[in-house]
Amino acid sequence: MNIARKFNNWRKYRQTVTELGRMTQRELNDLGIAKSDIHRVARENAGF
Questions:
Q1: What span, in angstroms and rounded, lies between the C-alpha atoms of 24 and 12?
Q2: For every residue of the chain, which 3-state class applies, written as one string?
């Protein structure tokens, strides 16, 4: 069960990075996220 949870967290992390990476700088600014913060936000979202 722990392996499945880790895999799902990793998938959630990758999905978040991909989605935020596709956004324009203006869209990220509207969310209050800098490009350099994408990986941090994704880690927090995935529960790492």
A1: 21
A2: CHHHHHHHHHHHHHHHHHHHHHCCHHHHHHHCCCHHHHHHHHHHHHCC
Structure token digits, residue 32:
């209050």
Q: How far is CA 10 from CA 6, 24, 29, 31, 44, in A?
A: 6, 24, 25, 23, 12
pTM: 0.84
Helix (H) / strand (E) element for 45: namely helix 38-46
In degrees rounded to 5, what are phi and psi of residue 36?
A: -70, -10
Q: What is the mean pLDDT of each run of 10 residues along the chain (48 residues)?
A: 91 97 97 96 92
Decide if 10 contacts 31 (C-beta within 8 A): no
